[in-house]
Amino acid sequence: LTGAQDGSVRMFEWTRPQQLVCFRQAGNARVTRMYFNSQGNKCGVADGEGFLSIWQVNQTTSNPKPYLSWQCHSKTTSDFAFITSSSLVATSGQSNDNRNVCLWDTLVSSGNSLIHAFTCHDHGATVLQYAPKHQLLISGGRKGYICIFDIRQRQILHTFQAHESAVKALALDPSEDYFVTGSAE
């Protein structure tokens, strides 16, 4: 799966030189993040205008429409994570009201899909990592802060400054004992 500054999203197969599917054409908002769900049957694309779109991967048309597309953040959606069976999605980004980390239910109508919004990261959340064993979300912000959220209780557990500049990367070890952050500096 490839995404570009011009907003295009294409899917390729290792053994074929041509794209299999073009999910989005050039001329859309820049792609900020893309993932497959754990089952590999859906892919999601976040963009610079605050939208998250999700497609079924096994499409037979060359330019399929997303089965879900909604604006998660008013300025940009920088990252997202499929939670559990991918009916629950967490997003990070920047919104005018500082609700920069959100939980969404993809099985209800778009007007009711926001489950919870965390007010955090004054200038926006840049990255997000889901820890399934502990049911935690870890987010990094533009000012170097890390926030840890309990998604079952829907509350912030801990906040600390890890860097002097924006957090650009988060990684979690498979046993969920540690996580690592990387920053713009």
Automatic annotation (TrEMBL):
Family matches, as SMART domains = WD40
Instruction: Name the keywords, alphabetized.
Output: WD repeat
**An annotated GO BP:** vacuolar acidification
**What SUPFAM superfamilies does the annotation carry?**
WD40 repeat-like (SSF50978)
WD repeat feature ranges: 118-159, 160-185
Which Pfam family is one of this chain's hits? WD40
Q: Which InterPro entries match?
A: DmX-like/RAVE_component, WD40/YVTN_repeat-like_dom_sf, WD40_repeat_dom_sf, WD40_rpt
An example Gene Ontology CC term for this record: RAVE complex
Protein name, entry field: DMXL2 protein
- Species source reads Pygoscelis papua (Gentoo penguin)
User: What's the encoding gene here?
Assistant: Dmxl2
